[in-house]
Structures are given as structure tokens and as C-alpha cells.
């Protein structure tokens, strides 16, 4: 076994901490060092060498859902009536009257880069019965904080409607599903959720709003580890150095910092069916122009509704590969999709409705690069619906070899289908023995 001298460990710790200025970890001890090392390995394992294969896989499912196949029609008859689900992720589970008897079917429904995410599918159910969050060191059994720090996989559900005011950031461990279906659950007026150096997490069916920056302090981040945290930023959800994460049917608004941040080499992420309103800097994918390890980042953004009162960053991207497909952009004040440091952005079948301001009609925004530089970046718009003067400035070589034949090239549905695909974005009113 290789022995690392304490002095070398300390120097390595400083080097790691220098790259992680937003990690909120005040004491980057051996436990966190090991987590960071494992998270980097997970990211390399989850990275897809041909990302456009994943984009076409999603587009194929969208096409089948909207145009129908024999198997789809048989499924509709089996459900004894019209299915309200309008996109392939929802079609997978929402039409079933007894969805609550098989909640874990949800884990089979994710598409896009996060398609291998199973969350707590292989674990027991944990029922949250207590909305309090009073003890950060020894969380009370029955609380959400107690649930998310457990060592084993868990499928976390809620006993009733509740509003949870998190005293400080909620640090979620690997192999967890937080499933708000069947209850009206709000995470509000406190801190947000942190998914840091972990893998395989599903967040579904919550309202997250009015999130404040935390003060930090001693917080238990697992059953067998307690650590000192610095102040949190006030994001609704932060994904930091994590892989295989699916965020679905979340309603988000009015947070101190971002609604969803995906940073520090996170990859294999899908964000779908979310509804976002009343916020400035909506989504940040890659936090630093200097952190080139975010080249591994691969994120799918599908079937979301970017609604009233949004200003910018839907998303703002750095370094990685981002598939923005069949989302509805009905409001922005500055721009919709932006980025720096040569991100690849594939925009397919979205609807972009520009604001009245004639200076904000452009969908895209490039930062910190001359035109001669950003023209080399790959930003493509395919089948997008541009309304009220919206326009998308493309870049890159459109004839670039994609690595597969034309027969395999299944286009996304055009932006005119978006209102149908995103009709049920946000947290759903789901009741037992009734299709959602």
C-alpha cells in the first residue's frame, strides 16, 4: 500500500481546495479528499465518448411519443383512456392509475445524459413524517435531513403535505431518490439542496423557492462524517462534482443565487419537465473559465418551461456538451442561452419567444471571446421556433462528421410541438389510484 506523507497530503489538499473555491467545505479532510477522488473516477466512467448518440436517442423517443407506434397505441388502450402525458419521459409512468404502488418505475424513465440514473431504486422506502430541521449534527429520524445522509440506497417519500425550511444546505448522499409525488412538498425560506461528490441521485416533484444563502457551520454530511461548512450560495439545487443526476418536475423560483448549478466536473445529468419563474441567473453549467476539467460535462435540458420573470442563463455554459431540446422559452429579459470557453450547445426543437425589448431579441450570448474565436465553437440551432423577432446566432461547422449514418439521424420534433411537450412542466398534483 502506498503511504502518503502528511506533508504531501496537506499540499495536495491545498491544491484541491484552490480549485474548489465554491465547494463550501471549510475543512477539506481525508474523507472529502477520498470523496473527490472517487467522484472524479465516476465522472470519467459516466462520460460518453459520442455525445450526439445520446442526443439522437432522446430525439428518437420524442418522435415515437408524438407520432405513435403500435406499441404506444397498445399502451394507451391498456390505460383505458387518453393519457395526459405528452413527452416520452412522462409517458413512461404517468398514465398508470396505480403509479403509487410502483413508484420506483420512475427510475426507468429518464432519458438523455442522465439516462443511467436509478437513484434509490434498489433500496427501501423512507417516509418523511417530520418537516423540522432543527439539528444539523444529529438529525432527527423521520426528517428529510436524516433520510438523505443514510449510507444505503433509499427511495424517500413524504407522509403528507409539508413546507420544509432547511436551516442549512441539505447534503444528499449517493443512491437516493427524493420523490414528492402524492404530497405538496415545498423546500422554502431556508437553504437549498447540495449534491456534492456523489452519484446516482433523483430529485422529483418538489417546489423549491425563496432559498436563502446559508451561514455554514458543523453539518453532518453522512452517517459517519461531520464537517465544517462555509456559507452556502443560496442555489435551489447545486450539483458539484457529481454524476448520474436526474432533476425532474421541479417548480423553482426566487432563490438567492441560481436555480440549478452544475459545476466542478459533474456529468451524466438530465434536467427535465421543470418550471422556472421569477429569477435572474437561472442555470449555471460550469462555474469557472479556468476549470478546464469541465470539458467532461454532459447535460441534457429537455421539456422545461422557462416562464415569467426570468432574466438570463437558461443556461449559461462552459467547456462541456449541452443538449437543449424541446424547451419552452416564453420569457427572458437579457438572453436565453449563453456561454464561454468553447462549450458545444445543440439547440433542437425549442420555442424562443423574444421580449419586446429590441436589444434583447438574440437568444444567444457569448462571453469573453472575440467573434473570430467563438465562430469556432459549435452552437447549432435545429428546428427551433423563433417568435417575436428572436434569433439564434449559430457557430461551428454544420457539416462536421457526426460519426453515424443519415439513417440514424432522427431529428427532434420542431419547436411548434413544444407547448404540448412542456404542458405539465413543474411539480405535479399526483394522487394515489389516479393517473397523474
From TrEMBL:
Please list the cofactors this protein needs: Ca(2+)
Q: Has keyword Cell cycle?
A: no
Family matches, as Pfam families: Pec_lyase_N, Pectate_lyase_4
The alphabetical list of record keywords is: Calcium, Glycoprotein, Lyase, Metal-binding, Signal
Question: Which ranges carry the Pectate lyase domain?
Answer: 161-358
| Note on how the cofactor is bound | Binds 1 Ca(2+) ion. Required for its activity.
Q: Which InterPro entries match?
A: AmbAllergen, Pec_lyase, Pec_lyase_N, Pectin_lyas_fold, Pectin_lyase_fold/virulence, PEL
**Main EC class the enzyme belongs to:** lyase
User: Which ranges of the sequence are coiled-coil?
Assistant: none
Q: Give GO terms: molecular function aspect only.
A: metal ion binding; pectate lyase activity
Query: One GO BP annotation here?
Result: pectin catabolic process
What EC designation does it have?
A: 4.2.2.2
The protein's annotated catalytic reaction(s) are: Eliminative cleavage of (1->4)-alpha-D-galacturonan to give oligosaccharides with 4-deoxy-alpha-D-galact-4-enuronosyl groups at their non-reducing ends
PANTHER family cross-referenced by the UniProt entry: PECTATE LYASE, PECTATE LYASE 18-RELATED
* Designated name of the protein: Pectate lyase
- Which source organism? Coptis chinensis
